[in-house]
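Minutes, project check-in
Item: structure for the 295-residue chain
Input as provided by the requester:
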Amino acid sequence: MADDAPHGLRIARPARWALGRVERSGGFITRMTWHLVDGSSVRWASRAARRRGRVEIRDADGSVTRVVGAEPATATRLARANLAAGIAFMIGGSLFALGPLLAQFGAGSVRGVDMVYLVGGVFFSAGGYVSVVQASNMPTDIDERGMLRGTAWRWWAWWPRQIGWLSAAVLFAGTLFFGVSLVAAFASDLTARQSNGWIWFPDIVGCICFLVSGHLALVEVCHGHIGLRPRELGWWVVAVNQLGSVFFFLAGLAAFTRPATSTVVDLGLVNWGTFAGAVCFVVGGALQLAERPDR
């Protein structure tokens, strides 16, 4: 076996495979191709390997002849992580959609609405962490048949130069900032300055993290040239989630408390922007359930 480690990314593959094209974006590798002695080639793509455990086998003309899945144990691990993350985002998104509806129509107490948000935030953080775990276990060994194989299961890794891992890690960080904001919302008698410092600021930082994570995910799935990929399920997952991040960001901006009046900039935009963003993450989580390894 040989290791390819351009820009810190190590992919173990048969020694006789010749490294061909390496596609990068901003220093991140999103796709690699190796040439085989019979004229065919093997193409590895970051998201496909991380989420679905797949590599493509292509003929001399570049046409895909077959898709090879990961070995069973690796595929099962990736599928379980994908299922857990997708369900967590669906539940978290559903609660984040319920919260603003209760607030907008005055149903329930303020503390009740805050609790709905807090529980939703816990599920969002769980989904974010599981996404990091899945990215930390991306299979990096390819055998003679083109089958991916993972190493021993790990609950954390430090892969900041792997774009899929970085996207998941930034998303997870965003959920933690949201958590600070959601816990602080239970404090009473806050001044406008305190509210902006303990609730609004971590919330808007979390929104920015979501946007950055979504941008990295789009770069990964589009291999550097962000555009429309309607035939790719992974693109739909990323695009829908990024749209949700935009709605969250707009809602976050509107939640700033004016010091002079101690009122938020636009309560309607806060509620409806949060609702729209949450619905997008519910849809993205549902789509993610289908973006899994083939058994």
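Outcome recorded: DSSP finds seven helices and nine strands in the chain.
No further action items on this chain.
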